[in-house]
């Protein structure tokens, strides 16, 4: 069980036209591989998109975090998570939470593989499948016809909900949302994500317009730090308010939850500190009766969602499927929980050869 070797790496690869907002947009996976004395290994990673910054995360891993993992037992994953948090606390959140996440995910992967079970099972699995929504095919730069075709394609494949991007040009958003609603009918849910682009008055105005298209939730309409703004939006708008991908610890989620500012809690384990912190946030959300819908990185979040009773959705965002030996299975609008040991994610040899930069 003792960790004898650590390695950090970066995979950098381009986005594609259905997701990107710029022609040169890229994703970076900043990862960790841990090996034990018996030769078993676990992998974990965080990510950056569009603006880069992966080298800064990797430097923190190499200099500060990974040296403190050597010689430790993988069974201590939650203890190590807390130790690494306190070691980096004075550096603030942001890249520290991201770097801790990569280590924590790798530790959980290693621990589950040593047990011979899936990560979901190691976390206390309660679901064999989790509802998912189609995401990642709604770039605001797409022509309306392409947006409609891609959204309708998700519905035709059995998805009961799709997510659209709004907020870049609020005056034109309704035309795009109406076109998708007309194409998919009244049954499937539409979720709208503004990516923190709106002012409070514009978010109130747009939210009232979207209500006419039976939008199920409005995600990140304003800056994530504006707790009072979210509380006002939740009081004024008829749809659910969702957010959380830019909240970097369970402690930071508490004011949103206690003040009644959100309906749907969206932690991202790659940004919030890993599996350990995502599970803690999920339990807090469950205690308040809130919906849980982890953000992005489907291949990892399916395991956390499967282990928490109040999981509403997993975001199906297939941005890295081409890099994987084996992807996820969708059946009747739900993701089947993988049964492979650990999180089950293996990158192809081609992906390592083509995209590894460190």
Q: Which stretches of 5+ consecutive residues score pLDDT under 50?
A: none
Can you say what the CATH homologous superfamily of the largest domain is? Enolase-like C-terminal domain
Please count the helical segments: 13
The percent range for strand residues is 15-25%
Q: How are the strands ordered across the major sheet?
A: 5-6-7-8-9-10
Indicate the CATH class of the largest domain. Alpha Beta
Query: What is the succession of H and E elements?
Result: EEEHHHHEHEHEHEHEHEHHEHEEEH
Write a concise keyword list for the protein shown above:
TIM Barrel, 2 domains, 358 residues, 4-stranded mixed sheet, Enolase-like, domain 1, alpha/beta
Can you walk through the features of this model?
The radius of gyration is 20 Å and the shape is globular. The longest helix is centred in the first third of the chain and has 21 residues. The relative contact order is 0.14. With 358 residues, it is α/β, with parallel strands linked by helices. Helix 7 links the parallel strand 6 and strand 7. It folds into 2 domains: 121 residues, Enolase-like, domain 1, CATH 3.30.390; 216 residues, TIM Barrel, CATH 3.20.20. The model has no long low-confidence stretch (mean pLDDT 94). The strands form 3 sheets. Strands 5-6-7-8-9-10 form a 6-stranded parallel β-sheet.
Brief account:
The chain has 358 residues and is α/β, with parallel strands linked by helices.
